[in-house]
């Protein structure tokens, strides 16, 4: 029997002890030798004395006292604490075979499911003869359609709709940029650091242009919101425009700011990108001050200065990880925003109302999924609000305390790639003055919760798997029920589609969170938990397989659902228009009419945005509440 830990150091000779422990030369390195000694029990004092004697006899030898355990691709938690018995090479070989067989059994079901999915998908695609064009395709964005004819209402609707459509395009573009940053240096094949980062410069220039465009659109949207609220106080009669919630506009503003928050997190957390960029900065500055040393005297001074200016600008705009903060600071230059008390109060009320709605959604049911996108949007809006807030009013304690309540429902979540987002850390670091409001007890509570979240998650992992298994089997059975194509069947099937998407979203979030929290805490995944993770992946693939096999009927149901919803909403809007007749609120009536006209067009992204903006301008929530109360 031998102890299951390996101790490696450099020795010129073999080591024997009277108790039977021994070591042998593993690999000769010139006059040195790499010795690997396997002992039957932990090293005793006598062994340490013997090692010290060797160090005295051979003072020039290099000793490496690194201690390490055996590494496995999939390790059991119990195996880390038990000592293995030594029974010779044969037993080791048998153990290796058993380990390989165990892995094969774990992967067998998962592999068969993937093969089955691929074969079904290929067969389905081969028989697919229907080409479907999504409603959000760019061709629909260029379609122009008539509005109410009222110049004031149509102008305001068009301005906000165009800004929101541009924002939607930028937000979609940002996803590709996030992927490119996270994949930096992944395909590096022997290139040097400078070669790798220099090849990345064109992308960084593209990213800089994206940041500039998004920043300008953010500024434009904020000023348009302020301008509309100011204009509506006096120019829009019989319609309290200054009291409109404008939730869609505020949310879009937060989504634009959220792209900067994600970019900052990706850049600051990427070790290779930061390290390579520092090397490039040092190299460019060295060349600039010593061109003769690098035989660059013939190089145009202007070109060298242009390169240096580019590097310095990219470092200032992107690589310092303060894109969001710099954008907020630029917006503080518009004094008309901070000095307008009514506007700042509307801004604060919008944040508070959105926070209340987010919490209501979380508490609506046990299966409710926290909206991560809306949460980051709220946090970035709160940061901008505190930058605009006069110094004597910072921080807004009501907003900070409301934001801290998020930690009761969500400590952290997966953001992008291998990043975990912790709302509490963002509040402390990014929102000016927030650290002055937070109590020390809250600090300790959050830290304890952070330390326990992985263990708590793993304790409930088996329970999650069992719950998902039951729900998935029930959902599959209902999806396989025969349908006769009636209206009720289509509506029922649409509800099933939403339920399946909801289930797949929860599974994806759980998987990403489990894997990334292990990575963040540098903890291995046990064999038992790996098996549960594979089961969760099977569930995701099963949902995907179910959608693929029912794709034709899904298209029919979605088309019917779009028509049904458009018709239902149009009938509601038509009843509102008829009930108002000769309305004393022309802005309200024209906004409702614009919404109805946009929904009567082919379903597309622009039509939906125009309809949403028109309903916001008409204060549809208040209108529908009044209709319901009657």
From TrEMBL:
GO biological process terms on file: endosomal transport; endosome organization
Domain WASH complex subunit 4 N-terminal: 147-576
GO cellular component, one term: endosome
Superkingdom classification of source: Eukaryota
Ribosome biogenesis protein BMS1/TSR1 C-terminal domain location: 1-59
Descriptive protein name: Uncharacterized protein
Source organism: Meloidogyne enterolobii (Root-knot nematode worm)
């Amino acid at each position: 029997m031998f102890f299951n830990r390996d101790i490696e150091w450099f020795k010129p000779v073999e080591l024997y002890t009277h108790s039977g422990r021994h070591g042998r030369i593993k690999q000769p390195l010139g006059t040195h030798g790499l010795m690997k000694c396997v002992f039957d029990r932990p090293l005793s004092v006598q062994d340490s004395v013997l090692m010290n004697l060797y160090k005295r006899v051979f003072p020039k030898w290099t000793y490496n006292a690194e201690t390490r355990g055996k590494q496995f691709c999939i390790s059991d938690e119990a195996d880390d604490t038990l000592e293995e018995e030594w029974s010779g090479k044969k037993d080791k070989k048998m153990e290796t075979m058993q380990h390989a067989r165990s892995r094969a059994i774990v992967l067998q079901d998962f592999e068969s499911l993937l093969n089955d999915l691929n074969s079904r998908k290929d067969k389905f695609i081969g028989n697919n003869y229907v080409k479907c064009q999504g409603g959000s395709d760019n061709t629909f964005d260029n379609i122009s359609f008539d509005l109410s004819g009222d110049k004031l209402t149509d102008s305001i609707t068009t301005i906000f709709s165009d800004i929101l459509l541009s924002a939607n395009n930028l937000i979609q573009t940002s996803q590709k940029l996030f992927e490119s940053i996270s994949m930096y240096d992944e395909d590096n094949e022997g290139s040097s650091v400078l070669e790798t980062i220099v090849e990345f410069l064109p992308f960084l220039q593209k990213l800089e242009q994206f940041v500039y465009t998004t920043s300008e659109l953010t500024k434009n949207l904020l000023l348009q919101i302020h301008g509309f609220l100011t204009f509506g106080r006096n120019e829009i009669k019989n319609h309290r425009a200054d009291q409109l919630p404008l939730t869609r506009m505020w949310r879009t503003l937060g989504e634009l700011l959220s792209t900067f928050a994600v970019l900052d997190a990706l850049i600051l957390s990427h070790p290779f990108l930061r390290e390579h960029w520092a090397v490039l900065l040092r190299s460019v500055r060295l060349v600039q001050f010593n061109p003769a040393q690098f035989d660059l005297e013939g190089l145009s001074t202007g070109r060298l200065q242009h390169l240096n200016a580019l590097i310095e600008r990219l470092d200032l705009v992107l690589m310092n990880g303060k894109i969001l903060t710099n954008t907020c600071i630029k917006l503080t230059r518009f004094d008309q925003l901070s000095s307008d008390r009514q506007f700042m109060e509307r801004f604060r009320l919008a944040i508070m109302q959105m926070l209340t709605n987010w919490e209501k959604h979380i508490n609506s049911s046990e299966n409710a999924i926290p909206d991560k996108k809306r949460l980051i949007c709220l946090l970035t809006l709160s940061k901008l609000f505190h930058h605009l807030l006069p110094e004597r009013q910072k921080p807004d304690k009501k907003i900070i305390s409301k934001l801290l309540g998020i930690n009761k429902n969500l400590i952290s979540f997966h953001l992008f790639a291998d990043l975990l987002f912790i709302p509490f850390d963002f509040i402390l670091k990014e929102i000016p003055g927030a650290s002055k409001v937070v109590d020390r007890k809250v600090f300790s509570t959050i830290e304890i919760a952070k330390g326990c979240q992985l263990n708590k998650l793993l304790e409930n992992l088996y329970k999650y798997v069992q719950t998902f298994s039951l729900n998935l089997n029930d959902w599959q059975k209902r999806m396989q029920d025969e349908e006769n194509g009636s209206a009720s069947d289509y509506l029922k099937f649409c509800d099933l589609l939403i339920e399946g998407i909801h289930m797949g979203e929860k599974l994806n979030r759980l998987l990403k969170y489990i894997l990334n929290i292990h990575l963040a805490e540098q903890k291995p995944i046990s064999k038992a938990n790996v098996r549960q993770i594979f089961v969760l992946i099977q569930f995701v693939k099963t949902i995907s397989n179910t959608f693929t096999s029912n794709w034709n009927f899904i298209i029919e149901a979605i088309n019917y659902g779009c028509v049904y919803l458009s018709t239902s909403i149009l009938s509601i809007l038509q009843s509102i228009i008829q009930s108002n007749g000769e309305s004393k609120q022309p802005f309200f009536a024209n906004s409702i009419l614009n919404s109805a006209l946009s929904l009567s067009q082919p379903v597309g992204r622009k039509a939906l945005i125009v309809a949403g903006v028109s309903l916001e301008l008409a204060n549809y929530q208040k209108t529908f509440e009044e209709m319901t109360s009657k």
